[in-house]
Please model this.
Amino acid sequence: MMTYIKINRSTLLVLFGVIGLSIAFAACSNKFKPQLNSAHGINFKVTTLAQAMEFSKVQNKPLFVFAHASWCPTCKKMEQEVLVKKELGETYNAQLINIAIDVDSPEGKKLNEQYPIRATPTLFFFNPDGTVAKKLEGFTTDEELLAEAQELKK
Model:
């Protein structure tokens, strides 16, 4: 004999709501948080663009700005797969000043006013004198980033 469970519409909605919230919380777990500093990859300073440009000028090193967003899947992919690479970290940490700016933050809005951002991530490379050397939009591989660092040395 088969037993049927009668579920009304409101119980079903609550059940799907709980499932949806569980999925949302799982997506916000540590696995998906920005990994802007790693043991081996690029280590980003927490500072303003103006302060970073001053560091760049004083130390006579190019400035690398990773403009990202917390909601951007391409940014997360770069943070988790590219920016954590050892060779990239060795090169960028030694040769450049590195900062990351969330485009939705007040500092990100200032950056967007000065240097329009059409896509995330956007990667800016500034010369020590503050001029833009290069701007890349979208996913960028570690090979491309290493090539940019070599280009800036010239």
